[in-house]
Amino acid sequence: AVVSTQSTGGFEMQPKTYKSPRVLCLNIELELKAERDNAECRIDNVKDYQDIVDAEWNILYEKLDKMVQSGAKIILSRLPIGDVATQYFADRDVFCAGRVTQEDLNRTVKACGGTILATVNNIREADMGHCELFEEIQIGNERYNKFTGCPKAKTCTLILRGGAEQFIDETERSLHDAIMIVRRAMKNDSVVAGGGAIEMELSKELKSYAKTIHGKEQLLITAYAKALEIIPRQLCDNAGFDATVILNKLRQRHAQGDKWMGMDITSEDIADNFVACVWEPSIVKKNALTAACEACCTILSIDETVKNPNSNYKAPNAMPGM
Predict the structure, then answer these.
(1) Model pLDDT, residue 261
(2) Please, are residues 184 and 190 in contact by the beta-carbon 8 Å criterion?
């Protein structure tokens, strides 16, 4: 889907639905515009002036005729499309849109095929894209050009709507995180159970390992194991559950060997999250633990903070008349 960007004269007369259309993407301007300030043309009679005006119109109409003769029904351009061109296309049942962003044009070419042309001379079939259905739809206050059944499409467009900008931003961040998780899961096929299951299992193993260590290292490993339980505890707090009850149940089941037991928000209890398909890529957990350890080591390596006592010094007011 591409945001519709133009509403010039003749726009409402254009059809809004096409089946199996040809899509032509351009990087040219289709409107009459004033010459530059330093342009000068000297004439001595009215006929010469009319010839200049006719030449400008003929150049524009020649471009429009070539685009219509190519068989394209959808014409998108990065530069403006004027009222004359819009009305010309509307009379011939052709849809056009100007001032389309470069990003949207590139996405359209990748999905539908073809190329972005800088001239309308010798338009070939390979230069145009195709799709099964083109529609212009309105969602809220925005109009969108929707391409369906694109032969080369490997992506889709998600339209987020909400009552406030903060909700939209938060939804976008959550959706981006979910997509990146799936992307990593496809690239790295090693997964572990989520919902605090892997953290509780690591905590249990570290507590058992700490008992075999003598000295101060035992305290360090025990503290690390206790810190891992913060993840399922925070999940319980976010869901409004009793964290103490859930954690006690998880400790019991993990001690019995059920290593994939985690929090189940649906039943407000615990469940085998590996069977429930609540998975997380192993590399994500490894990176999270590595980053947390590095941050902790950085903080512990700071032995003293030096503060300049003169940083808060304020100069006395100057004497009057100085």
Answers:
(1) 93
(2) no
